[in-house]
Amino acid sequence: MPDNASPAMIDTARARLKAIFGFDDFRGRQAEVVSRVLAGQSTLAVMPTGAGKSLTYQLPAAMSHGTCVVISPLIALMHDQLRSARANGIRAATLTSADADWRETQDAYRRGELDLLYVAPERASQPAFLDFLSAAPICLFAVDEAHCVSEWGHDFRPDYRLLRGLLDSFPDVPRLALTATADRQTRADVMAQLGIPEGGLVLAGFDRPNIRYVVRHRDNPVAQVTQLMAEHAGPGIVYAQTRRKVEDLAEKLAAKTGRPVLPYHAGLAPEVRAANQAAFVGSEDMVIVATVAFGMGIDKPDVRFVAHVGVPKSIESYYQETGRAGRDGDPARAAMFWGAGDFATARQRLAEVDEERRNAERARLDALAGLVETAECRRAVLLRHFGEDPPAACGNCDNCLEQPGVTDVSELSRKLLSAVYRTGQSFGMGHLQKVLTGVEDERVRQRGHDQLSVFGIVQADEAGLLQPLARALQARGVLVATDHGGLALGGTARAILKGERNVEIAIPPKRERRGRRGDATPNPVGDPLFDALRELRRELAIEGQVPPYVIFHDATLREMAAQRPQSLAALGRIAGVGAKKLEAYGEQFLRVVERH
Ligand code: ADP
Ligand code: ZN
Asked: What is the average per-residue pLDDT within 318-346?
């Protein structure tokens, strides 16, 4: 059997891509995956979020005789996919505990009238299900979130292990495993577990070029997120670390911006949580403030920004959480607002971790600190973390755009660390700054700190560097927090004090250049036609009870506004307008174009 479909077959696939989805061509490595599937080969596709994984089985499913059985871990995810597939005229159904139309779905399957059948892994591995599936032809097994099959992966699900039996019962049906996150070990394991041959890996890069990474010190989270919201009119996710912070931030942001803002955390009643999530998915301008519990199972393509108020758990979680921005390919922002305290707390917790895990956890924190503190391209740091060899600069992160200076602060570090040492490793930065800059207040005098050799040794011109330096040293674990809010020496402090090690820090440019909105939406502002097209989309969304993006993406409306199609044929040539959508909505959109 050849590894790939014939050129004629690929041409047919491209034609169907246009007819069904309205897309002119494949993106990234989609063509390779589709080609293997059409040739009947089993494949593991590792592609970043937003790369368009679902199309790689939906298209072959629509082209082939027989049903594609999709195994997916979350009901919400299945229903999202179902909606989008149906909107494109693909015959799809789900068999989940949340569905009332089981009988109809089963009948349709038996009659061979389904292109896609979505099921959960626990159902898929039941013997009765195998019997049921045997009643009609199957063209493909697609295993979504395939990293769940591996214990190496970050989200192991035992039910996924049972799939092998089902797959092996249909030896002639190709398998397509899909995931956005799998390191080398996980990939090998997934392939072994699902019986995918060695040559069956299609690995796309991790880069998400439309996401702009920005990392800032957190000085006023409400003001910082408010500014972010002012720059992005579209939907956004704000991650905060505790339920209390979620509630507090949501309330303040709503009051300050007047935008719709809702909270999401595990302490809310399930029906409130579900309602808030649904409201967010359907909205074009809502911001949801959430704990990290939020996001699994949401593939809203038009999220314009993801903000972290506080450092994420690891670079892996940062990548996954920020990856929820900009799936539609339009510019999006990932903003992190970090504080030295985030690292201090995390490093304090290391002490409670058993020794075996401690080194790994420390390495995880060091990697995060490296990302936060770097003066290099953030994307390069991220991609190198995932084993890639990226260019030195991306042009779309804060460091590439603003080029922070790197300053050698070894001497100042020695002064600061000595002051920490000589004052007994129990005072916070406020007090240390006074001692170092020679401020004689009551407390300083009482403790006799005005008599220390470090008193007043930092000159005014350097004093401004003390705070950023202290933050950097905390992030690196050179300064650690004590239980009473003081600072003590840790990590490589002694080597620095002895002059064996130098310290450099990145200093961001003095003032953020305001008003530059390089990554702002490409949507036209104040264009009556574009606004009217959006209005129609909103009405149709309400009428069809689907999120607006299921009807058309912004990019499709932008092209309509720019091209002003005068006929159904012209409208059908616009990217994102497939045959089914043309038939369902074409006339109405043409009328709007005509009127403006
Ligand atoms: P993933 O599952 O990989 O995160 P999705 O399957 O949700 O990504 O696709 C992301 C978005 O990209 C979807 O909105 C989809 O319509 C769009 N898309 C997929 N393939 C193409 C393509 N070939 N051309 C243009 N847009 C595409
Ligand atoms: Zn960069």
From this structure: 93
Q: In the CATH hierarchy, which top-level class contains the domain 211-404?
A: alpha beta
Say how far apart CA 581 and CA 578 lie, in whole Å: 5
Q: What is the pLDDT of residue 345?
A: 87
Tokens of 10: 């690929």
> What distance in angstroms lies between residue 53's CA and the mean position of ligand 1's atoms?
7
By most ligand atoms within 8 Å of CB, the mutation choice from 55, 551, 556 for ligand 1 is 55
Interval 475-496 mean pLDDT = 90
- Residue 435, pLDDT > 50, answer yes
DSSP for 182-222 reads: --HHHHHHHHHHHT--GGGEEE-----TTEEEEEEE-S-HH
Q: How far is the CA of 375 from the centre of ligand 2 (A)?
A: 10
The more confident residue out of 559 and 74 is 559
Instruction: Pick 7-203's CATH classification: 3.90.25.10, 3.40.50.10190, 3.40.50.300, 3.90.1720.10.
Output: 3.40.50.300
Site residues for ligand 1, CB cut-off 6 Å = 23, 26-27, 30, 47, 49-55, 299, 301, 327-328
- 515: pLDDT strictly greater than 50: no
In 3D space, the residue among 73, 54, 266, 75 whose CA is nearest the CA of residue 157 turns out to be 73
Ligand 1 atom closest to Cα of 84?
Answer: 16
What's the CA gap between 241 and 349, in Å, rounded? 15
CA of 358 relative to ligand 2 center, distance in Å: 31
Q: pTM to 2 decimals?
A: 0.85
For a substitution probing ligand 1, which of 20, 21, 552 has the most ligand atoms within 8 Å of its CB? 21
Domain 528-595 has CATH 1.10.150.80: yes
**Same CATH fold, 211-404 and 7-203?**
yes
Lowest-pLDDT choice from 4-8, 93-97, 424-428, 526-530: 4-8
User: In this structure, are residues 522 and 558 in contact, taking their beta carbons and an 8 Å threshold?
Assistant: yes
